[in-house]
Amino acid sequence: MVAREMTVTLGLRQRPEPDVLLVERSALATLAVTSFKPEDVHLVIEVVSDESRERDRTTKPLKYAAAGIRHLWRVEMEEDGKPIVYTFELEPAVQTYVPTGIHRGRLKADIGFPVDIDLDLDTFIR
Q1: What φ, ψ does residue 67 adopt, rounded to 5°?
Q2: 75 forms bridges with which residues in the sheet?
Q3: What is the DSSP track for 49-98?
Q4: What is the CA radius of gyration of the chain?
Q5: Between β-strands 7-8 and 35-36, what pairing exists: parallel, antiparallel or unpaired?
Q6: Which terminus of the chain has fewer CB atoms gathered within 10 Å of its CB, N or C?
Q7: For residue 33, what pLDDT is reported?
Q8: Phi-psi category of 83—alpha, beta or left, where left has phi over 0 and alpha has psi -120 to 50?
Q9: What is the DSSP letter of 40?
Q10: Maximum Cα–Cα distance across the chain
Q11: H or E segment to which residue 124 belongs
Q12: Residue 54: CB partners within 8 Å, gap ≥ 6?
């Protein structure tokens, strides 16, 4: 299931809020859920802004990796205003993310199932 405006409980006083999450359906068994456990999160997506750049590039990835969240995508805007998506997968032996791709125009990946997303903003504006 896709969720947004929800936190992930990583520890005491550690509940970051990714911009988008992909979670197990069972994690949304009730509408009373306000946070997810890391083991229920398959993918976190952070959309970088000027205000969140440092957190989204360094702080949050370290915390998500330490919690064992398998996939992380970071979305940024290039100078021409087009999105670029950096994709990462957890390398469990060292609990850190390794890059799996840099995507412009189209994001095609396998994160346990195939993903194919058109990143062309003109598609959404029309």
Answers
A1: -85, -10
A2: 47, 85
A3: -TTTHHIIIIIHHHHHHHTT--EEEEEEE-TTS-EEEEEEEEETTTTEEE
A4: 15
A5: parallel
A6: C
A7: 85
A8: beta
A9: G
A10: 45
A11: helix 121-125
A12: none
Q: Alpha-carbon torsion 96, 54, 87, 22, what sign?
A: positive
What are 29's two structure tokens?
Answer: 């068994």
- CB-neighbour burial class of residue 15 (10 A; exposed 0-12, middle 13-18, buried 19+): middle
Tell me how crowded residue 63 is: count the other CB atoms within 10 A of its CB.
Answer: 17
Token look-up 């068994």 returns 29
Could you read off the pLDDT of 37-67 as tens digits, one per residue? 999 999 999 999 999 999 999 999 999 999 9
Q: Which two tokens stand for residue 76?
A: 């940024």
Question: Residue 29 has what pLDDT?
Answer: 81
